[in-house]
Design a protein that fits this description.
With 253 residues, the protein is an alpha+beta fold. It has one domain. Helix content is 18%, strand content 24%. The structure holds zinc ion (3 copies). One zinc ion (ZN) binds next to strand 10.
Length: 253
């Protein structure tokens, strides 16, 4: 078949696919971004279900099993307001735990989020984590498979760089048990700086270094800490999990 004919055939096939009444369906399990655009929020259906919308950033934000897409990323940019857990750096994620199914062998994948971030799920059982100031750090070794996939999956950070969302505030160095990358993450949401002028002193944005009469007030993120028992509202039945704190940002309540 000549080149031209092949092109024509492709066009016909494309037309045929586009014209069918049955739209392609994508399988999902567990909470996931509705469209991938932060403003469109999250779909909270836990059980396996289908959408006609393809997952956006499927290669970095999701992991798949039998064509079922499971979102493993930080849900914060999508307006997530449920209980969340603070992590630092790369760590294992157990898919069967996220979607609450029982299997004999854990389906382990790795989260490649650099620096502090949140997940709706807590550190998975049967994996070693160390907690420091309410932030979880993976304390195990990274397998070869993680190393192999890292160049591709670490691009999740480029995706999140476009979205502004609060991250856990980490002011201490990772514990020695953590062997993952320690990367300074460029915050899209800086600590708000409010310049307060002393009466009579003009304040201009972009002005040269402040004269001594001016005062710079740093407004820190105000956080409300509450504790909960997991059976109350966490929704993921983890029995041997001791009590821990969940943080919520006041402005999101
Ligand atoms: Zn859904
Ligand atoms: Zn993570
Ligand atoms: Zn929890």
């Amino acid at each position: 078949m000549s080149r031209m004919n092949l092109a024509a055939l492709s066009a016909v096939l494309l037309f045929a696919v586009g014209g069918t009444a049955e739209a392609k369906q994508w399988r999902y399990a567990g909470m996931h971004p509705r469209t991938g655009q932060p403003a469109d929020g999250l779909c909270h259906i836990e059980a396996m279900h289908v959408h006609t919308a393809a997952p956006l950033y499927a290669d970095t934000l999701y992991r798949t099993r039998d064509n079922v897409h499971i979102f493993i990323g930080d849900p914060t940019p999508f307006g997530y307001e449920g209980p969340r857990h603070a992590y630092y750096g790369h760590h294992p994620v157990v898919l069967n735990v996220i979607i609450h199914i029982d299997v004999d062998v854990d389906e382990v994948e790795y989260c490649h989020h650099d620096g502090p971030h949140y997940h709706a799920y807590e550190p998975p059982p049967r994996q070693r984590f160390v907690e420091k100031e309410d932030v979880s750090y993976y304390a195990g070794e990274y397998p070869e498979e993680y190393q192999r996939e890292n160049p591709k999956l670490v691009r999740v950070n480029s995706v999140y760089r476009n979205w502004s969302s609060p991250r856990p505030v980490v002011t201490v160095a990772p514990p020695p048990e953590y062997h993952g990358p320690v990367i300074q993450v460029g915050f899209k949401v800086p600590v708000p700086r409010v310049e307060v002028s002393v009466p009579g002193v003009e304040v201009r944005v972009g002005a040269p270094p402040p004269p001594p009469q001016r005062e710079v007030v740093i407004i820190r993120e105000e956080r409300v800490v509450h504790e909960h028992h997991h059976d109350d509202h966490c929704g993921h039945g983890h029995k041997k999990h001791k009590k821990h704190k969940h943080k919520k940002f006041k402005d999101r309540d």
